[in-house]
Design goal:
Length: 285
């Protein structure tokens, strides 16, 4: 399998930025729209956004011999999405992104067990420093910590399995094919809860729903490409960039305050990611 660490890291930064915008849109919509409907429309319109790409590449782009992996990725990914969207609706945006950041702690373990990939010492230290940074921001044991964060941690564990599944399929599956099957399968599964939860979006919600699908699909394509070309455990620390995006968006649109602990934690997280790359470059030199 290829392992282009630098390109993978850049794609993670791009993808997380786009998904942070998606998160802000979800938080805006969740004030009135039920979570299960947001999940459904996110997948539906994300799938629609892929149609021009599929038409350009040809229907042969959808041929696959690993449908079982696509089903696994959709099942765990959709479950993670429900949990993450619930957390976004019930926590400050920056902190919602932060509980999602526990995903890199699970990814190297899943990749080691499933794919037999070694956890490099520098990667282990980078993840440890990142974990300390997240603890600074989440402040466990204080009044600011909320049990809802546990839902986010469970979602992060599921998301890490989905990302390693992408890695497992990378030898035969393109980024477009992986994202398409996730969107198609997830849309069908996400439609089931709507039977018991009738709701129709208002006219002013539709533009936000469409934009959510667009940025979500572009972000997912970037992340899918990243996990196809680089070791999940090594590029995992770069998902920490979402805390910076989330803090900025939360401050601009909801007046969420950046505490000193958040600044310290964010600094540790960024340093951990940059140090991980510099360590790999030194080894290659």
């Amino acid at each position: 399998m290829p392992n282009n660490l630098v390109q993978g890291a850049l794609l993670i930064l791009l993808g997380e930025g786009l998904l942070s915008i998606m998160g802000a849109i979800i938080k805006h919509l969740s004030a009135e729209m039920p979570t299960e409907h947001i999940v459904f429309y996110r997948n539906l319109f994300g799938l629609v956004m892929l149609i021009p790409i599929i038409m350009h590449n040809g229907i042969q782009e959808l041929k696959t011999k690993v449908l079982h992996f696509h089903l696994l990725r959709a099942a765990v990914g959709l479950s993670a999405m429900y949990g993450f969207f619930y957390v976004i609706a019930n926590m400050p945006l920056a902190e919602a992104f932060l509980v999602k950041l526990t995903s890199p702690f699970f990814m190297p373990i899943v990749a080691a067990i499933w794919l037999g990939e070694m956890i490099k010492p520098k990667t282990g230290w980078a993840i440890a420093i990142g974990f300390i940074g997240v603890m600074f921001i989440l402040r466990p044991g204080t009044d600011e910590f909320t049990p809802v964060a546990l839902v986010g941690i469970a979602s992060a564990a599921l998301a890490s399995t989905a990302k390693v599944t992408i890695r497992r399929m990378s030898a035969t599956e393109s980024s477009v094919r992986i994202v398409f099957y996730f969107g198609a399968i997830s849309t069908v599964l996400a439609a089931i809860p709507l039977i018991w939860s009738p709701y129709w979006p208002s006219a002013d919600q539709w533009p936000w729903i469409v934009l959510m699908g667009l940025v979500a699909t572009c972000g997912q394509l970037a992340l899918t490409r990243a996990y196809r070309i680089a070791n999940p455990g090594q590029i995992g620390p770069y998902v920490y960039s979402s805390v910076v995006y989330g803090a900025i968006l939360g401050w601009i649109f909801w007046g969420e305050t950046l505490l000193i602990t958040t600044i310290i934690g964010s600094a540790l997280i960024i340093i951990a990611g940059l140090w991980n790359v510099s360590g790999k470059k030194e080894k290659a030199a």
